[in-house]
Amino acid sequence: LKKIILFADPGIDDSIAIIYALMHPEIEVLAIVSSYGNVTKQKAVDNAAFLLMEAGFPSLPMIGGTNSPLSGETPEYYPEIHGADGLGPLSPPPYKGHLNNFSDLYDILHAHSDITIVDIGRNTALAHLFLLGSDIAPHIKDIFLMGGAFFVPGNVTPSAEANFYGDPVAANIVLSRFTPIYIIPLNVTSKAVITPHHIQEIEAASSHPLIPIIKDLMKYYTEAYQTLIPGIEGAPLHDVLTLYLMINPEAGRYVRRAVTVFMEGEGKGTSIADFRPGSRSRPGDPAICLEFDVQAFVEDFILTISSSTG
Ligand code: BDR
Ligand code: CA
């Protein structure tokens, strides 16, 4: 069983990732840290709380993360992809229940020695953890980040991907403070496309109450992507792929390279690594995913969602 702390900004693909992590037989979620990103921190918390309740995990530790990037800039949100409140057509009520303190993360980390951190949002809260707690590294086994874009256009500027663009200072802090880090970038996650046909397969196999929620989320998200990219058959589940590759390391091909994220100007959020022939990796460089087994991912997604919730 892999013990993880999930940093997220739900968000549609984050929400499906939360459900996937809760339902996966090989993943134990120790806590969810909900922050600004796709939506405000408040909405990200409301959405995570709603999903935990619906999934039957009402008392799983939930931590309110960060409100805005370390630079002090105002966050940009993307309602055209994730809906006005982050869950497509759904608007969960404001969460009034218990929220753990940010400092509880230290207690959770200190109670273990082999935690995997998965960050599928802006890296602000995770950077805070490193800035405030210098003694946490021994408790972390590895870190998986959904972020960056290599060789391809970005999704929020011509060259930048949303998570690294949202807080490039935080991304650089995390990248410089810990090893091993696995980066699952946009050029890879864009191929993790789930189609309406796959959702029908899940629907036919399971009658769990979460399935209608997943269906509503995916319908909205797929239509948003189809407006953006005419002809695409479904929508990419960037954040779910990151969890899948965390649990199935053999399904991805990685190259180790130092990564720099531009922090300001026109190139803000752009990630670069030296892939020239003859360039080398140095010990401690992050592993950048370049390819994965798409078919195996799709099969695992269908199986995990339909059998665990069946
Ligand atoms: C990333 O940004 C967000 O919109 C998604 O949830 C994903 O984490 C993709 O660039
Ligand atoms: Ca996300």
As residue ranges, the low-confidence spans are none
Please give the share of residues in helix.
25-40%
Per DSSP, what share of the residues sits in E-state strands of 2 or more residues?
15-25%
Order of helices and strands: EHEHEHHEHEHHEHEHHEHEEEEH
| Mean pLDDT metric | 96
In this entry the ligands are:
beta-D-ribofuranose, calcium ion
How far is the first residue's CA from the last residue's CA? Answer: 21 Å
Please state the CA-atom Rg, rounded to the nearest Å.
Answer: 18 Å
Instruction: State the helix count.
Output: 12
Q: Order of strands across the biggest sheet? A: 3-2-1-4-5-6-12-9
- Coarse shape: globular
Structural class: alpha/beta
Give the SSE map.
Blueprint: E1 2-8, H1 12-23, E2 27-34, H2 41-55, E3 62-64, H3 79-82, H4 104-110, E4 115-119, H5 124-132, E5 140-146, H6 162-166, H7 168-177, E6 181-184, H8 186-189, E7 193-194, H9 196-205, H10 210-228, E8 235-236, H11 238-247, E9 252-256, E10 260-261, E11 271-272, E12 287-292, H12 294-308
Parallel strand pairs: 1-2, 1-4, 2-3, 4-5, 5-6, 6-12
Antiparallel strand pairs: 7-8, 9-12, 10-11
Helix pairs in contact: 1-2, 1-11, 5-7, 9-10, 9-12
Bound molecules: beta-D-ribofuranose (BDR) and calcium ion.
